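Is zinc ion placement plausible here? Inputs below.
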Amino acid sequence: MMKKDVYILAIESSCDETAAAVVKNGREVLSNVISSQIELHKLYGGVVPEIASRKHIEKINQVTEEALAEAGMTLDDVTAVAVTYGPGLVGALLVGVAFAKAVAFAKNKPLIGVHHIEGHISANYIQNKQLEPPFACLVVSGGHTHLVVVKDFGEYEIVGRTRDDAAGEAFDKVARAIGLGYPGGPKIDKLAKEGNPDAIAFPRAKVENAEYDFSFSGLKSAVLNYLNSCEMKGIEVNKADVAASFQKAVIDVLVDHALHAVKEFGFTKLAIAGGVASNSALRERFIKECEIRNIEFYYPSPVLCTDNAAMIGAAAYYEYIKGEQSDFDLNAVPNLKLGER
Ligand code: KG4
Ligand code: ZN
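Reply from A.M.:
I modeled the complex. Tokens:
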């Protein structure tokens, strides 16, 4: 018997992107609509939760209609409705969750709550149709820095995590300190190309007795101290050198830990995910290091790295075929842990 195609309408609203997508059989993106609020939050130097929630409410209908139209579908054609229910900003998450529940209830469709990080990891399934677990995945976003063992679809073990700032958070804070504005990651990425990554010796932090854990707050302080001391001595700061040297310090640690985990756990495959995974220098380094070591390296295209709903649809597909569904009492869980339901 032919297997029936599964079309998932996915909704994502955990931070400052209102997004909806239609994904076929977990791997094929029929539409991926993203309404970014970056321009609004830029004025404040970061995401303002209250503004984010209000904008999500304004946009979610339109974004969903666009996603369905682009996919050439109506709500009746959809197999299930998926939504990010954590982690993230509670007010922002609630908009997506309430919306998805209403649509699923009205159209009598299954509802699937998805973990945001599981979504980020699953972006790799869209990009690489052959990729299957097990593999190691480095998740680096604005809120998370996790080294994850993907044992099977939907089965994860976190083997390393940040003790303080997330990698993306460090990019954003350093960018702000050198006057690049929000969001800092892409701006540092660009400016670093003009700088010398070995100009300034910033620290590569190790966490004692936790070889896969990360710590970025010391690096952030070192950059701030460097900027202060230059100011006090009346030395003009070369921003491109600061950006390049800071970026290299982050990348050194991320690459080192990820490759170490791949070796220790005996994997042949490594994937990266999350907003920082779109960093061009990080990708180049991983491509090079993995080639030397004969490791298959997987990375999503930039639009699938930063927040989007297609990745949520991919993750939801594997929950759906396992028979996992959410009840209509699904709630937003701002500090949801990976692997919890
Ligand atoms: O995954 P994401 O869109 O949202 C979260 O779930 O947090 O990640 C956003 C983060 C921000 O901190 C942003 O500065 C960072 O990803 N980012 C980058 C780049 N593009 C986005 N960091 C470094 N280089 C980039 N090219
Ligand atoms: Zn994210």
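Short version: DSSP finds eleven helices and ten strands in the chain.
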